[in-house]
Write a structure and sequence with these properties.
There is one protein chain. With about 400 residues, the chain is an alpha/beta fold. It contains 14 helices and 14 strands. Helices cover about 35% and strands about 20% of the residues. The strands form 2 sheets. Strands 1-8-2-3-7-4-6-5-9-10 form a 10-stranded mixed β-sheet, sandwiched between helices. The chain has a 4-stranded parallel β-sheet with strand order 12-11-13-14, sandwiched between helices. A hairpin with a 5-residue loop joins strand 9 and strand 10. The longest helix is centred in the C-terminal third of the chain and has 23 residues.
């Protein structure tokens, strides 16, 4: 094992150094040369590599690659690989370029689950055929005509290989026997499978990057944005729901009037939508929404104003509860959408955390400021609540699509 945690275990099975299935002596290369060697070996052969999940057989994504994986799986006495295999992409952008028909909802799911141990079945349309070919992907290699199987692994040697390869890579788990559901979780297990199956890959690479120790979860995304968990791995549906929860943050000055009212209204609108029972509500059920609020100059512990509570209750929604919170950079980064009450609030938010510029804006879709009702009569709160309800409904519709 070298200092950077990468070990070259065997090199080029086509040489005269050993018979197929033998265990060659370890050797070490510099990381850059190692990755180049891995890419070269995978161009027209198989490599075994430690990924962020388990050890995998990887090769160039092509019809010949499918044949190589089928032969290896047969040697491992595992279930035969039936086209398609899984495209392991360096980044989500590579997948998006090949599938321009994907919607904003699909892209959002990808941003929540990638990079990581989630294989996505992404809907495929006829107009994606040319971009798929431009990406180097022939029909039926990583798709079943209805969905493309794709994953973006986390950092590590495998990810480095994917970034370096000039063509798409596909990979399948390294395992032995039809009942081996977990696959090879470490180098010793990988070498054992290779020896038992008499497989001599071009390279076998070990990495000390953190690994899950189980294969990836499999999630099927439909065209309308609904999803199904087809293979759980160590992740159940409740975990995926938490990952796909949308977080909306409302920001005002003191977090006692406008922003807690907005939080309560958003939560009420969401609950109403979920109870409608239509097709859209069924899709939205797969994407929980959590509304929160905070203030730029909040006095911690201050309660929502009585007038704001009454105005929200008059709309038929549960009134705001809890006490005032000061907005933090972490809150801003964790939110999926941020709505401020005024343009000056927005400027302050972007000054506090410039990285959220792409997901922050004023609540009013027209771009106008929402006046502060603090100190005003109850009727001001009531009219403000009605106006905010319409603004929030529109914003949530935009956010949902």
């Amino acid at each position: 094992m070298c200092a950077d945690g990468v070990n070259l275990v065997n090199r080029d099975s086509r040489s005269d150094s050993g018979a197929p299935g033998s265990r060659p002596a370890p050797g070490i290369l510099g990381t850059s040369a190692l990755i180049d060697a891995c890419v070269a070996a995978a161009a027209d052969g198989l490599v075994v590599i430690g990924t962020d999940t388990i050890y995998a057989l990887a090769t160039r994504a092509s019809p010949d690659g499918i044949a190589r994986l089928f032969s290896a799986r047969r040697a491992m006495q595992a279930a035969p690989v039936k086209s398609p295999s899984t495209w392991h992409a360096a980044t989500a952008d590579h997948v998006l370029a090949a599938l321009p028909s994907l919607t904003a909802r699909h892209r959002w799911v990808m941003s929540k689950l990638w990079p990581g141990p989630f294989t996505l079945m992404l809907p495929l349309l006829e107009r994606d055929a040319l971009p798929m070919r431009a990406a180097g992907l022939e029909p039926a290699v990583v798709d079943n005509a209805a969905h493309v199987f794709a994953r973006v692994p986390a950092s590590g040697v495998f990810s480095d290989m994917l970034h370096r390869a000039p063509w798409p890579v596909m990979a399948e788990k390294l395992c032995f026997g039809p009942s081996d559901d977990h696959g090879a979780v470490d180098l010793a297990g990988a070498l054992s499978v290779l020896e038992r199956a008499a497989i001599a890959p071009g390279l076998t690479l070990e990495s000390n990057a953190p690994a899950l120790g189980r294969h990836s979860a499999l999630i099927r995304l439909q065209r309308d944005g609904s999803w199904d968990l087809l293979r759980a791995s160590v992740f159940d549906r409740a975990y995926v729901l938490r990952r796909l929860t949308r977080r909306v943050l409302f920001v005002c000055t003191g977090n006692t009037c406008r922003s807690p009212m907005a939080q309560a209204i958003a939560s009420g609108l969401r609950a109403t939508t979920n109870g409608q029972g239509d097709a859209n509500a069924a899709v939205e059920a797969g994407y929980p929404l959590v509304a929160t609020s905070a203030g730029l100059h909040a006095e911690l512990g201050s309660a929502p104003t009585r007038e704001g509570v009454a105005a929200v209750r008059a709309l038929g929604f549960a009134p705001p509860t809890g006490t005032a919170h000061a907005v933090t950079p972490l809150m801003l980064r964790e939110a999926d959408a941020i709505y401020t009450m005024t343009r000056s609030h927005l400027s302050a938010v972007l000054k506090l955390e410039p990285s959220v510029a792409g997901k922050a804006g004023v609540l009013d879709p027209s771009g106008d400021d929402i006046p502060d009702p603090l100190g005003g009569p109850a009727r001001h709160y009531a009219s403000l609540a009605v106006a905010m309800r319409d603004m929030i409904a529109k914003r949530l519709q935009e956010f949902g699509t």
